[in-house]
Description:
The protein is built from 19 helices and 24 strands. With about 700 residues, the chain is of the alpha/beta class. α5 (about 110-175) crosses α16 and α9 packs across α15. Keywords: ATP-binding, Coiled coil, Kinase, Nucleotide-binding, Phosphoprotein, Transferase, Two-component regulatory system. This is histidine kinase.
Amino acid sequence: MNILLVEDNLAEARLLKEVLKGAILSRFNLAHVKRLGEAIASLETESFDVVLLDLTLPDSEGLASLDSLIQHAPSLPIVVLTNTNDDELAIESVRHGAQDYLMKRQINQEILVRSLRYAIERKQAAEALREANEILEKRVQERTAALEMANELLRQEIEWRQRIQSRLELAQQAGKIASFEWLIPTNDIVWTAELEALYGLAPGSFDGQYEGWMQSIHPDDRPKVEQELWQAVKNGQGLDTEFRIVCPSDTRREEEYYLLDEASCPLTSSCCVPGEIRWIAVKSSLFCDQIGKPVRMIGIHMDITEKKQLEAQFLRAQRLESLGTLASGIAHDLNNILTPILAVVQLLPLKLPNLNNNTQQLLKTLESSAQRGADLIKQILSFARGVEGKRVNLQIHHLLFEIEQIIHQTLPKSIDIHSNIPANLWTISGDTTQLHQVFMNLCVNARDAMPEGGNLQIIAQNFMVDEQYARMHIDAKVGAYVVVTVADTGMGIPPEIIHRVFDPFFTTKEVGKGTGLGLSAVLGIVKSHGGFIDVQSEVNKGSVFKVFLPAIESPTQETDDDLELLTGEQELILVVDDEAAITEITKTTLETYNYRVLTASDGIEAIALYAEYKDEIAGVLMDIMMPTMDGTTIIPLLRRLNPNVYVLAMSGLNSTEVVSQVQKLGFQGFLSKPFTTKELLWALYKGLGTAV
């Protein structure tokens, strides 16, 4: 320890040297100067760990000496020395920046050594906090600037979309605009041939009567249109409204309608299809005679059906985006709740080894339920935000056997379930949760197709796809597959819509009984696994869905349930999380498996602990979403203290975006909440084995 003593009294300086000689510090260097100017000159040429400063000097006196020294060396800890027993002076010294205040007459070896050590530690902690605040402020400024830039880009995008939308509307109107004139005194209406085509009528077939026009409007919209029309006449204004029409049904003579081709339709786009519901917008102006009496209304009709459809899709996309945001927030909180539950239920058998069989079964039920809750959250996020799947080598017959058990318990008794799932199926590489979702969706769809009961078959087999078979299926490749067939004897799928069953939002179910996302999610998951789906169906005879999953040559890696292989060797782990339940149960779990643990509830406490124990801490387990200072802010500070620190991120959000973010920031691993004891131990085992 290099100490700079600023003391003009030689006797007191010698006394301090003698006190330090017998101290527990085995190595120190004490440099002595008599004046403040000499001290400042020494600081410019030499490096010191701490300063002992007498407040009464020949060239400076009182707190001015302290202020001048801090100005020249702001990061150097200072202990003030004085012969005055003045509490107010002590307080003012600390306020001005001193780390401690000592009475010369009361100094002994223990007091002096402790004061020097604490002064250095306090200054280091203050500097770390100051750097943390600077980094945090800089991060806030950067995020504010990024937000402003994003807002500007959003504004430009909105303007661009508005311009595109205006041009799109002009293009639509150019092909779907027709004029009309209403003679108010006689109630006669003059329509052009384009307007008749817009309403699905043959040229000249409109009778020119007000009632004829009203009858063509959708019954639900007719009262509103009539009210708006006569209110506009009463107020001396034109009509500006939107409504639906029902194109004339094909019970009338077929020759009264236009064929859907450019030669026969006076509009540049398709005319009204019999029985179709379309949206019409009317914009018009009202003309009055010399005494102000309304005499006629002239305007245009526009087909805005496509605009309404685009609006509906846009609103649906907004709802899905909101659902994704909501699901992410809820998933984070629920995963924080499930994490200690899973950890506790796995620790109890170790802490209480003499539990009876009934209690052990209850614990297994609790663990299974908590794990299924975590899996359910992952299934929600797989659509809402895109969950990073965990691919493992697996024998699919285990998964199919579990699904068979579930559907036996949940499907109506009117449905007979038959299965043929051999044990010698080839190995595949897949995400168990996602594949569970695929086959459960297919079984639920089969149930819905058999409301009166029927037969459901689940068949699995090994299958070799040759070149001829691959040519018949665009997504197939030559090679080995495991084929899982889900067949029902339900109502079947009409041939005209069978090609649409995998389209997002397409469903034949009643409103409220299906979103049209189930099969689209099934197809997405199967394709992400390198497989494909074949569908065959016949109305009133049932449907057959065949899921082809590519087989792999490597054998299944059976999981080793012996956690003793992952036991620690008394490594010290720092656990950082703002959820007290998570830090406590994680601490208990790690200590049970021979780790030592420090816990911190926020970033500032984590930095202080790491600065104190950095030579002992082997790894840091840190939540990336915390108030005040989150994990993304803390890791640069930890890297400054130790560039080789092993940091494992954990979060209740397991999205592709989050995993990518933590990798870019320098985290060596990622642990998704809720995690099992084995996942926690395995992550530390892998990380500490490769950490420097």
